[in-house]
Amino acid sequence: MSSLQQLQQQKADLDLKIAQSLEISKKIALELAQAQIRQKEIDTGTTQIKALMEKYNLSQEDLFPNAQAKVIPIQSKEAKTLAEMRKYFNRR
User: What is the pLDDT of residues 27-38, one digit of tens each?
Assistant: First the structure.
C-alpha cells in the first residue's frame, strides 16, 4: 500500500511541477510579446529618424555632437621635457 501512496505523491509532485512550468511558460510568452512590441516601436522610430535626417540633410554628428572620440590630456609630470614626451608617446 505504501508504493501506491508513493506513486500518488510522485504524481502530485509532477502535477505541481507541470503547473509551475506552464505558469513560467506563460510569463515568458508575455515577456516575448512585450519585447517584440518594443522592438517594433524602436524600428519604427529609427525609420522615422532616418527619414527626417534625409529630409533635412543631417548626419549623426549633427544630432550627437558629443559622440566624438575623447582626447586624453597629457599629465603634467609626463610633459616636463621633450625626451619624456617622446618616451610617453612611444609607449602608446
Answer: 999 999 999 999
